[in-house]
Write a structure and sequence with these properties.
- It is a single chain.
- It is built from nine helices and no strands.
- It has one domain.
- The protein has 232 residues and is an all-alpha fold.
- 21% of the residues are buried.
């Protein structure tokens, strides 16, 4: 294919992704109540007697609905985006590269979803800690905008950091790292993982930090084992 043919193919893939995204946004907009209820569950688990988010302006509620529709549409479109990306790059890959690409794409999607779900499960404990640290004289009454921003940021960061083993295994396959090097730097890796987990968690609570650090340490050891297996 010529350069212009590649660009035409890329444009066609982008149009398909945008079309699916537009449909997914409409679906998420119609399912707004169910999506908001899903995100409210951690809040209701901490404050069962007062689990209603508030807004401070007349247009805030509509803006929140648009935000939820946009994020929900993006989440629904993600499998289509990955599929179209795979279809675009597949003709340029060798047989060996295709063999590795499929599990890498699948593992990336699954690990991101698992990371986001772990953040959602951890969030009630984080909220309980944040509510209690201010003392009994402070009553928590969250705005919908700040609450949704925090939980979505936490889920996004957890999903991104759970891609850690995919990156390590890719570097091992590329010859940049070896299982022996990873095992040699294990102590430094433990320190770095704990520090990074404490820094990047937006809620800054110990529960979120441990929920991120412990799986990353397990992923580090699993990457060493997978690297040794692939080397054999």
């Amino acid at each position: 294919m010529t350069l212009f043919e590649h660009l035409g193919e890329l444009r066609r893939r982008l149009i398909v992704c945008l079309a699916f995204f537009a449909v997914a946004v409409v679906v998420a907009y119609l399912l707004y109540g169910h999506i908001l209820h899903f995100f409210e569950q951690p809040y209701c688990a901490v404050q069962p007697n007062h689990c209603r988010l508030q807004v401070l302006g007349p247009l805030d509620a509509f803006g929140i609905r648009l935000d939820v529709a946009g994020y929900g549409g993006l989440a629904l479109t993600l499998p289509v985006i990955l599929w179209e990306l795979w279809q675009f790059v597949t003709p340029g890959l060798r047989a060996r590269e295709k063999r590795y690409a499929v599990p890498f794409v699948f593992a990336s999607f699954v690990l991101f979803a698992v990371g986001a779900y772990v953040a959602w499960l951890t969030f009630p404990h984080a909220l309980g800690f944040l509510n209690g640290v201010g003392g009994h004289g402070i009553v928590a009454n969250y705005t919908a905008q700040k609450y949704l921003t925090l939980i979505l940021a936490l889920m996004g960061i957890f999903g991104a950091t759970f891609e850690f083993p995919v990156i390590l295994v890719a570097l091992e396959l590329a010859g940049v790292l070896t299982p022996a090097k990873l095992a040699h730097f294990r102590r430094w890796a433990i320190i770095i993982i704990v520090v990074v987990s404490a820094v990047v968690t937006p809620s800054s609570d110990p529960f979120s930090m441990l929920a991120m650090a412990v799986p990353l340490l397990v992923f580090y050891e699993a990457s060493i084992a997978v690297g040794r297996l692939l080397k054999r």
